[in-house]
Amino acid sequence: MNCSVGYVMTGQNAKYAVFGCENCENEVWIPSADSSHFGPAYLEDARTSGGQGTVQFRVGKTADAASDVVHCTFENILLLRGAGNTKQAFQFRASYVNTYTGCRAYGGPNSVDNVSTGTLINCDFTVSRFTSNISSEGSWAPVIGDSWGNYFSTTVSTGQYSRNGNVVTAVARVAWSSKGSAGASPLILTLPIPARNASELKQAVTIGDYSGLNTIRPVTANILPDTSLMTFHWVDNSNVWSDLFANQCNNGGELVVSMTYLI
User: What is the dihedral of CA 151, 192, 194, 131, to 10 degrees?
Assistant: First the structure.
């Protein structure tokens, strides 16, 4: 296949198997399809600079037309890019009812435009947010402070997390000796991996032992969508919560929090 000027495919109950191209300047684009099967496919752009176009594999028309490609299967789509190649890998501007199995991208920028994903099975787009088959464990140093970027001086900052696909479970512990110049903005704690967007984010947060938050009210927390931040609140007798501001905290305290959330 010669993709120097791009290649467009549509499908209506169709099957496209074993298609591929080398040094595709623009993209393979599937603007509309229904109940069709695409793949296996091998798409390569080995160039390392200049003239790479924008996207290697595009599904759907625009961000506002999520129903253009529906009930389709994309199987074993392999994308290769040379180091330094700025082409984006996948662009999914399509419906949630599609299935992507064994779709992978290697090399170039770790870039996937996920306007609407479908069901991801054994996919690896080299972007942690949009993968479904990655399991890992690790540690991070959580930061506590205000939402303006003024952080407490910590004496303890430890966190452990485990990831299974798009689910992260983590426990964080911070202790601080000074709140520094933290201001009248919500108290925040940083996460190990960014959370999902508002429409897809599911979460469970539990506050463990704490001191120095300077409130006698119950304390709750929630993870902010599309960020690596958790924010804290106090709850009144009517079960109405208000932001817990960082400058209300004492110059010394400790906080333990556990969480499970989607990425």
Answer: 170
Give me the helices (H) in the chain, please. none
Q: Which amino acid, residue 64?
A: D
Q: What pLDDT digit, counting tens, does each position of 143-201 carry?
A: 999 999 899 999 999 999 998 767 899 999 999 999 999 999 999 999 988 887 777 77
Choose among 69, 65, 14, 66: nearest CA to 36: 14
CB count within 10 Å of CB 58 equals 23
**Residues contacting residue 147 through CB under 8 Å, at least 6 positions apart:** 185, 186, 188, 229, 231, 246
Q: How far apart are CA 62 and CA 218, in angstroms?
A: 45
Taking the complete model, does pTM exceed 0.85, yes or no? no
Q: Phi/psi of residue 185, each to 5°? A: -135, 160
For 119-131, what is each residue's pLDDT tens digit? 777 777 654 444 4
Among the three residues 98, 133, 168, which one is the final residue of a domain in this structure? 133
DSSP character string of 69-138: EES-EEE-EEEEE-TT---EEEEEES-TT-EEES-EEESS---EEEEE--EEES-B-S-GGG-SS-EEEE
Q: How many domains does the chain have?
A: 2
Give the CA count within 13 Å in the CB-facing half-sphere of 17: 1
Amino acid (1-letter code) at residue 78: L
Last residue of a domain, one of 103, 133, 163: 133
Q: Which range of residues forms the domain containing residue 253?
A: 138-262
Query: What distance, in Å, lies between the first and last C-alpha atoms of the chain?
Result: 36
